[in-house]
Amino acid sequence: MKQTTPQWVISSGVAALTVALLVVDLHTPLGVANHILYLGPVLLSLLSSQRSYPFIISGIVTVLIIVAGLMSENPHDLPLWVPISNRAFSIWAMWVPVWYFRQRRDHELLLQRMNTELEERVRDRTRQLALVNEALVVEITERMRTEHSLEFSRRELTRLASQLIRVQEDERRRISRDLHDDINQRLALLSIELEGIQRQLPALTPSLTQAIRSISDRVAELSEDVRHLAYHYHPSILDDLGLSIALQRLVEDVGSRNHLETRISCHDMPATLSQDIATGLYRIAQESLNNVVRHAKASRVDVALAQSRIGLTLTITDNGVGFLTDLPRTESGGLGLLSMKERVALVGGTLSIESAIGTGTRLQASIPLMEEA
């Protein structure tokens, strides 16, 4: 409790009032309850901020009440218990407010101390929260910076992967053209020269004739292999006639070479299709069919290419042995399942594979055609 009255004023008032009451009490006969007025200086002492001051004054006043009672006259010959009980009551009435205010002041001090501790805890917690908040801000800033860096790296990797695929396809196209226009033409000329040698030298021995014919047959086989290799690197039909015709040729070729029952359907194809999408879908179909031939042990393959409201969808289904889709495989020399997903993702599409042991496999590549629609 904060003291608003100076201590010397309180002490002076208490002393003057106590002396005055003592003088009055000494000159008042027993039986007059003027000693209850001693409660005045006691209540005045409660204004002091010193905790022990009210108790000191109460003790002094208690002694004065007893002394004054012993020294006062008893003209009416009152029974002794009457003045004793009166003064005892006055002493009790004096100490009750002292005790009450002492308890109240202790509670106020305790409450003040608790408030102080609470405020200190709040300040400490506020400082801790401020530090935590600063740490969170730093962490969030670093995380955002890292995420931006990762996003930039992801975009850069996507750009580089797309550029790499374009460069790869350009190189495949160049190699295919060189094989078809250069190597295959030379082999054709070599075959023609061998036929010319046979016509110019009719008197050749049968063994030599057979050797030349064997060489000519091998040159023809080599020419066919070179033509097929050139087509495998990059089918010119894809650039000339489009994706639908190229897929039909691919499916028919795979079926005839590997004794597979095949079926292909192309519906609602867009009039124009970007080279990236056409090449990507063709390569995915090519790799998927290669996987069917190598691993599926299938007897039938169905290929469907159709345009829907969500874009262009390529679906390849076989009746082979199937595999566990949670264990993706990446075959050497091909795109592999993971690479197919990456390739279709480069053109904004998705790739899904459904398969299980003994139930065959269903591969579906979906690519949006917002620009082409």
Structural features, described:
- This is Oxygen sensor histidine kinase NreB.
- By secondary structure, the protein is of the alpha+beta class.
- Among the domains are: 7-125; 241-367, Heat Shock Protein 90 (2-Layer Sandwich), CATH 3.30.565.
- It contains nine helices and five strands.
- It has a five-stranded mixed beta sheet, covered by helices on one side.
- The longest helix is centred in the middle third of the chain and has 120 residues, at 81-200.
- It is rod-shaped, with a radius of gyration of 55 Å.
- The two termini are 84 Å apart.
- The model is unreliable at 330-334 (pLDDT under 50).
What's the layout of helices and strands?
Elements: H1 7-26, H2 39-45, H3 53-71, H4 81-200, H5 206-233, H6 236-240, H7 243-258, E1 261-267, H8 275-296, E2 300-308, E3 311-318, H9 336-346, E4 350-355, E5 361-367
Parallel strand pairs: 1-2
Antiparallel strand pairs: 2-3, 3-5, 4-5
Helix pairs in contact: 1-2, 1-3, 2-3, 3-4, 4-5, 7-8, 8-9
Domain Histidine kinase: 178-371
Organism: Nitrospira lenta
Coiled coil: 150-200
Keywords, please?
66% helix, five-stranded mixed sheet, two-component regulatory system, metal ion binding, 373 residues, alpha+beta, Heat Shock Protein 90, phosphorelay sensor kinase activity, single chain
